Each structure stands twice: as structure tokens, then as C-alpha cells.
């Protein structure tokens, strides 16, 4: 079913982790008039999502991490995934205004965090760790096409690791970062705390990073082509400001 008309007239865009940043400035039509961060209300798995047992986790599932941001003014949670043994990807708004950034694996093991840096172009952040991460997936070479299957692996509401399946239903101009260009839209469900989750194709390769959802409960992804471009650019990320500096 064609969704272009609905995607071009999104009623609202909702960030998926509380970052304490308030309401962002209004944007030109046809994008939403305001973007309101969602606060994490509990630490239970998202209703209707499939909870994954730790038994028999393969490398793709073990690469997902839970991120807790003990911030300057509040606590928020998000998700992330490893891209190599000591580097993980999450969202900029997940690590913003951080006083203490905490990362843990699916089996509850705490990972010692070193540094964090955010991208100016997209809602992406890199976190370097001192402890080795359990495993990391393959990054897809190209972006998915409309109709391709997608599986999102993360920690909605800061609870248990869950999966949410759907399809890529199109693309739209990114309402949060005007210079970023096109982002992917899927019908896989996400919740507060899903920010930074890896979106995987049917071969377990990362094809995008969850960063928001729409008022229609569709999920928005930074496409893997953008992720690859930013990871290859040494100037794309800058260190996260501490509470004292912000």
C-alpha cells in the first residue's frame, strides 16, 4: 500500500528517550510543528513486544546494549549496539546532558564507559568502552528498499531485550535534522527506550538506527548509508558536553 501521502503529512514526531531537552523549535510544513521528548515511565518491557530469553542468544542479539543516562536533571534510558569490540552506536539524545553514562549487556553485565561523542548532522552518538563488548554485527553495504523486512532489537522502557518485526514502508525528509536528508520509515513498533536500537535485515545485518517514532506509531531510522558515512569521517563527531559545561 502506498504511504507517501501519509508520510509527507506526519502529525507529530516523538523522540524515544527522555533527554531533558524540552520542546524543539517549530519546523516548516509538511513536517511536524513540534517534537516532544517522551519520558520513561517504568522499567517494564514494551507491551505487545516479544521478550527474548537470554538462553541461546546468537551474536546479533548479544550486540545490543541497554544505556542508562544519569543526567543533569533526570534519568533516561535508551538502547545501543556494538560496531566493534570497544565501540557502540546509540542516539545523540540518549547521551545528551549526561552526568553518568551506564551501559549493560543483555545478561546484566555492566560495561565500563570511556568517552562519548555526538554527530552534528544526525541523531547519532558513539560511545567508546573500556570493557570489551560481547559481539558486534555486520553493517549492511546498502540501504534497504521499500517492502524489505526489518527487525528492531532493543530495550524499550529500559526493560528486557525485545524484538519488533515489520517492513520498510518508505522514506521521508528528516524532521529533526534538515541537512541529513532522507530517513527510513518502518511499521515495526518502538517505544521510549528504543532509541539507538539496531534495525536488522533478514540476514542480521544492520540497515539503520532507530531514533524516533511518529504519531502513527511508525518508526524512523537513520539509514545505514548515513551511519557508514559518519563513521568514516573523523570530524563528524565531537565530545559530549558534561553537565558543568552545558
From TrEMBL:
Signal peptide start and end residues: 1-17
PROSITE patterns: PROKAR_LIPOPROTEIN
Highest taxon of source: Bacteria
InterPro entries: Peptidase_S1_PA, Peptidase_S1C
Alphabetical list of Gene3D superfamilies matching this protein: 2.40.10.120
Pfam families: Trypsin_2
Keywords assigned by UniProt, alphabetized: Signal
Keyword Signal: yes
The UniProt record lists the keyword Phosphoprotein: no
Name of this chain's protein: Trypsin-like peptidase domain-containing protein
